Amino acid sequence: MARRSHVQTTLNGETVEFLCEPRQSLLEVLRDELHLTGAKEGCNNGNCGACSVILDGRLVNSCLVLGVETEGKSVETIEGLAEPDKLHPIQDAFLENAALQCGICTPGFIMSAKALLDQNPNPTEHEVRYWLAGNLCRCTGYDKIVRAVLDAAAAK
Amino acid sequence: MPIVAIPSLLRNLTNGKESITVPGTTIREVIDNLETRYPGMKARLCEDDRIKPGLAVYVNGLLTRGSILESVDADAEIHFLPAIGGGIAAPK
Amino acid sequence: MRDFSYIAATTIPEAVALLDEKGENARILAGGTDLIVQVREARRDVDWMIDIKSIPEVNVLDYNADTGLVLGAAVECYKIYADDAICDAYPGLIDATTIIGGTAIQGRAGVGGNLCNASPAADGIPPLIVLNATCVIAGPNGERELRVEQFCTAPGQTALEKGEMLVSMKIPAPASNSSSYYLRFIPRNEMDIAVVGAGASVTLDDAKQTIVSARIALAAVAPTPLFAEEASALLAGREVSDEAIDAAAQAAQAIARPISDMRGTAEQRTHLVGVLTRRALNGAIQRVRDAA
Amino acid sequence: MLENKDYKVIGTRPIRHDGVDKVTGRALYGADFQAAGLLHGRVLRSPHAHARITSIDTSRAEALPGVKGVVTAKDLPDAGDKVADLGEGAVNLKHLCDNILASDKVLYKGHAVAAVAATNPHIAEEACTLIDVEYEVLPPVLEVRQAMEPDAPLLHEHLKTTSLGETADEPSNVASHIQHKLGDPEKGFAEADVIIEREFVTGTVHQGYIEPHNATAHYNQDGQLTIWCSTQGAFTVREQVAEILQYPISKIKVVPMEIGGGFGGKISVYIKPVAALLAKKTGKPVKVLMNRADVFEGTGPTPASFIRVKMGATNDGKITAAEAYLAFEAGAYPGSPVGPGAMCIFAPYNIENVIIDGYDVVVNKPKTAPYRAPGAPNAAFGSETVVDEIAEKLGIDPLEIRLLNAAKEGDRRADGPVHPRIGCIETVEAAKAHPHYTAPNGKKHHGRGVASGYWFNIGLESSVTINVNSDGTINLIEGSTDIGGTRASIAMQAAEVLGISAESVNPSVVDTESVGYTAVTGGSRTTYATGYAAYEAAQDVKRQMIVRAAKLWEVDEANVQFADGEFSSINGKEEQISFRDLCARLGETGGPIVGSGTVNPGGAGGAYATHVVDVAVDEETGKVDILRYTAVQDAGKAIHPSYVEGQIQGGAVQGIGWALNEEYIYNAEGEMTNASFLDYRMPTCLDLPMIDAVIVEVPNPGHPYGVRGVGEVPIVPPMAAIANAIYDAIGVRMTELPMSPDRLLKAMGKI
Fold first, then answer.
1. Quick one: B3-82 is in which CATH superfamily?
2. The pTM is what?
3. How far is residue C250's CA from residue C216's CA, in Å, rounded to a whole number?
4. CB–CB of B86 and D240 under 8 A?
5. Which residues pair with D255 in a beta bridge?
6. Measured between CA atoms, how close is A55 to chain C, in angstroms?
7. CATH of residue C21
8. Domain D305-457+605-747, what fold?
9. What is the pLDDT of residues C210-253, one digit of tens each?
10. Considering only CB atoms, which chain C residues are within 8 Å of A2?
11. Complex confidence, ipTM
């Protein structure tokens, strides 16, 4: 077995250190080593977006990033989004719009929406749909999710 | 007396009759009386004094709990139909 | 997932030396969006992943209106389409970079990786072909260049020799009155692999009526992405017309050697080559005409 | 008759109780479960669609460092011994067990053969490659009509066709035949002026929930087995595991974690008994997770089918007779939903003369599982397309012909029973009046289609307990796992009874030792039946509170009333106390109050839906785009309209996926070649417009608030509606699902 590497990264604004095997994805590291289980495994090959996180300001599928690659980088996950006493506006919009049913895809959608609104604060419906096409939801038919993201943009 | 709709696949036992009026105040009594008139009927509907797995009993258009203990009105209409899979696991 | 070792190389010589030393079971890791899945699904045996993202040369994204574009092998898609000058100069390349995977994939995947993965269905390769791209390859014996249409040799196989790696792609500056276009057919609107892909570049005369030259390339209809050389040549000197475009489309269909698989049937693919070639050519011509 | 009256809580849109946990990533799903000393399990699956297992050698896997245990079917109790005990049911037990770990034969690619527990998932995976299994490969049977041929290879040597309790003499792949007959179909067709008969083929499709199956099991030294998992029904897991492991239910506790989608697919157990076997063997907690390919290949999809529909009508549009033949692929073991398919196929219509035959047929594919209105979508694709063709032939508007023939209260269903109060007509009328239907539809290659659908819905057992808190709130304990906001819709019904806000209810979904028996979250029953139980439990609380108020005021209980959240005394003494204030005085009036409600209601009340869709067809590529979609549905009474809309929208979109692209694609060896989200092609948000969900409320007399189940019927109409829209656009009748671009190109004669 390849030696476990020591990795230091910034996770939701805090410096963290962990040991991982090269074959462990960032998703595995988050879930199994750091016990942050908000990012979900839906397909483990980049087709569902349930594991979406933001790496150095850019949306990525954490199942397609090796844990060792995050050395010196900054990772944002769903667990870092809300303030201690206040949800992020996108989280509020998802609740207000009933934009979730089972909720398994929700953390991924919210991280993806955050990455979108960070760089495009006023997206059109088409832009929202294009940006979120890498996030699969099987429950909602997407209607309320798209509305929630548009609402969150308008609320900003 | 309750009326039992005979499923088409059981009409070979009733000489083609589509519905039979039989006495009974429970499903069990109704089936026993059917059996008296049309021997073989009970074996097609029941197993060990219970409705066969996979069969559902409707009384007056409503799905019952599927128990032979279910009581029936004097003018009840009774149907034996395949149980609905509707998101429900295989019958016990 | 099989066990492997990870090394982050910081220079080209270091990466080349590692590739040379470790041999067949070493693989370059850039965006990883294909490689990690392939190793996870045991479709590629890799013992060493050599991460090149810390090497300056593979991160170059340099466009100059006179000399063209140098596109580092590890530059992610999102950086390419975020550059307005590149969007203007090479719209066909932008077409491809905005449809490779979803947004999250585009945050990691790049055209260089798309090329080295050598999928017959790669969306990034037909635009490189029609834009006359050249691959800059580093190896134990120094650097060499190779035309992009010669880079892929079979599904998943490239012309890279032992110890060699792709450093960058060079794309000449666009000629005046020229443009490019890439499209693919997929049953959904995103997140699919091309059933067929078609790219085209055209240069028109000043009146924008006659085709001076054109290049057509196809994806997912042969073991490698194809340069449709004869179809392209048919258009040189022809007036823009449905007849000329149909003739090119038919010539493109003639070189397609598609298979039937879960993504489409051979008959469907051959049919689509005609449809998409016409649409790619018309799209590129329209772009020339729409330009101020 | 229930009226649509004003409620205080019902019909409002509060924030769901589990919402914050789910938008912050804090909600714990099955795969999120962690435990000290946890081992990781992995299942080895068959590479062949049909083969006899001649030997399994696990020694190399066991020798791999990090491997703690390997199990095969030999570790399961011998199901064969149970034949004598259980009679005919024993056959089911063998099938149930063999589907968990194959004993003698593998019947589909992906069939579980063995499993490993190791210190990490990568080692477990590697160990699976070290298990040596020898197979004698047999020819696979991959299609229902092929499987019904007399000379088809047999999956099960002892399987014989049963027809309502009668068993045939010769073995066959046809597990059962059902039939419904009403009136005189021959006479009905003789009366018809126009008769249309068409054949339809539908592909195998998967529920496509985003969360793969998962299970963690642990055996205590005292033999107590605990299973943490995502499931649609913790009690159903307990029953199935008890049967498979021959273990008492009292020794099994199932803890339902949050569940990431099910749609019927998370009722049957797959890896839960395997996790239990591995936990027993290793003495450690073992977590077994499926990956996406495992989910596609190793769990139950809904069946492919062959359907023939014949319908006749008079020139004025009256449907006089209907005939259907439905052959459904059960997968590896009997049990397709051909029964409900046969019962639903003509349910939107009042037809006097009907004959329907259904066949349940085994093939070398995963054993099918329920998927949203199982059987009904396949059936409706056929019947609703034929109705459209009849309307076209007669020059009658397609919604008008549905109104002319619509089923209503008192009409007899083809399968016999008489309809209670139903909302079929109301959904068609609402669709007809909708601005979508009245909007112009004239563009070239654009088309509009409509279709209706029916689903029974179901009742079954539910239990709810309410604990009253001293601050005027209640804790509501339930056993229905919450897949789509049912904590809210159940809590709201209790809140309505007690005159408190939805926020004053704290709903909890608990394990099998902490609440009364509750059947699965499925059959569109949860808001209906568990909501009914919550209503009853709240009524129980109310009754007890009235006793306390009477005691407080020293009046007779009969003189205490409760309305609008206030208890008051009548007949003399003027007293009043709010629910909240009385809650603060429970200690002094007799102690805590616990209310309970249990139900097994029979009046689920069927649901109808009518959908309208506009499509654009690219004639050169065969691609269909959905331009506009309106889904009308009778919800009886929408408790939380947002989540009712969500069910309608989600069901419609699953139907759109089924209509256009989703299918299991098999090669000649019986291998599924598209077992990934990349190639299975479920709709993304870029493939869709907004879905306009229109709720019609025809109260169900079988529920105190008139609730009808809403989860399943929205997936019934989309396939036919889209097929009809495609016909409207390009004049081609599509009879095969999915209506993928290559099939459209073929149908148009382009390839």
1. Beta-grasp domain (3.10.20.30)
2. 0.97
3. 12
4. no
5. D228
6. 9
7. 3.30.43.10
8. Aldehyde Oxidoreductase; domain 4 (3.30.365)
9. 999 999 999 999 999 999 999 999 999 999 999 999 999 999 99
10. 3-6
11. 0.97
